[in-house]
Amino acid sequence: xxxxxxxxxxVGVLLSNVFCKKSKGTGQENGVDNSETPIPPKSTALVYIxxxxxxxxxxxxxxxxxxxxxxxxxxxxxxxxxxxxxxxDIPVKKTISAISGDNLQHIQDAINEVQDLPADxxxxxxxxxxxxxxxxxxxxxxxxxxxxxxxxxxxxxxGTIIKATQKAQHTLIQLKGSGSGLAEVSGTRxxxxxxxxPTGAISFAVESAAGFxxxxxxxxxxxxxxxxxxxxxxxxxxxxxxxxxxxFERKIAAVNGNIITIDAPVVDxxxxxxGGGYVYKTNINGRISNSGIxxxxxxxxxxxxxxxxxGWKGIELIRAENCWVKQVTAQYFGxxxxxxxxxxxxxTVEECxxxxxxxxxxxxxxxxxxLEAGAxxxxxxxxxxxxxxxxxxxxxxxxxxxxxxxxxATDTQSDIGPHHRWAxxxxxxxxxxxxxxxxxxxxxxxxxxxxGAQILFWNCAxxxxxxxxxxxxxxxxxxxxxxxxxxxxxxxxxSWNTNVLPRSxxxxxxxxxxxxxxxxxxxxxxxxxxxxxxLLKSWAGxxxxxx
Length: 547
Fold this sequence. Notes:
The chain is mainly beta. The protein folds into two domains: 80-180 and 287-505, Pectate Lyase C-like (3 Solenoid), CATH 2.160.20.10; 183-283, Beta Barrel (Elongation Factor Tu (Ef-tu), domain 3). Helix content is 11%, strand content 33%. Helix 4 crosses helix 5. The protein is globular and about 65 Å long.
């Protein structure tokens, strides 16, 4: 066995030029020197580079269980168009300049004009270009039709600045679809009959697969019972079963008898003893798609560092699919640069920054890049924050999978990680920040309890306080290849203070599934040769990120 692992490690080192040339530190912050270290990265017991030059996976048992049937899931479906697809460059169809006074209607009229254009064969209508200058906006701009882009002339101080002037909590820009998000098609619900559907599984049996076909949009619907609440000891924090009936959006990849195969893995085990689950067809009509926000600087008015009545969210995605936000800096907003919510799937947020949020420093504020209930298959990459609380974070009952990749947080005031009631299937891949936690929050907040399950911290780095990993019964959380001052918690730990191969799990999984060209389409060169902490730190949301 030792010989086999030595062979695998040698293969991994030879392949490390693709994803991790060298284990790099994080520079210096708050007196902690995390500069380059001579300690080489190594392979892991759960995921390693096999002899066929692809990732290999070992099974594991969940907390409090002995059946070693689970595997680390494939996160590579996160992002625009199922991952591995370049963000499109949409032709400009309308150009405007700033006017004096309020520009809300001025910009909205331009958006509406492009929204009224017919979509081309690829589903694109066109871009609205805001020339460089400052646009005062009193209210919320809304993109409500597919194929429309709002684009500026730069995210730096000399670019396009949209200033949120309304003296009330509000969102400055919304990408907003309609419809019911993930509505159940009547009469299609079928019970899952497999006794234990493990994490990482893509196939399971149902009572009858009649009526289901390849390509169908479905929900894998997990319905926990009181035994699940009791085993987690969550009743004391107000958890009730009906609040944790969670739908995981998937597509059918194959049907064989009564066996259904889905396009992306299960990220939360479905056990009959804990209530089991169902599948049903979904109606996702009304979502907005192929729309984006690009190359802007969003700045909120504020009256003092603890002002609560000003711009709250820079951008919010609501029932959005295959949309994007790129090269946007948000400054002084009280809550988030980008928040993704309400059945929004397969969206990409990249090269964005949240700077200097203004609000009281307490709950429900300063969540720089945020995922809310119903959001899945979303990718945040190459993002930067300064002065936030929960900088890369999930809210309650976020179904997953979702990915945060190659991001940097400085001057942090609280922890990175799942924050609030059972988010599942989140990969934090090469994230640099202060505290990084997945834990039982117990009575914190409004009685959060277990913040997340199947949460993976991969090659993350903490410059202050600790990285904490705890695992709930019947699930598993991981800290693999992480570096920092202190590790806490009795979750799964491997290779503390030594990075592992591959450098990025998401990029390695994407390469296995779609090939190296898919990785090249969504990354910059620096990502393909090592971590980019120093690059993000020197950029800090000012102007265009260099490569």
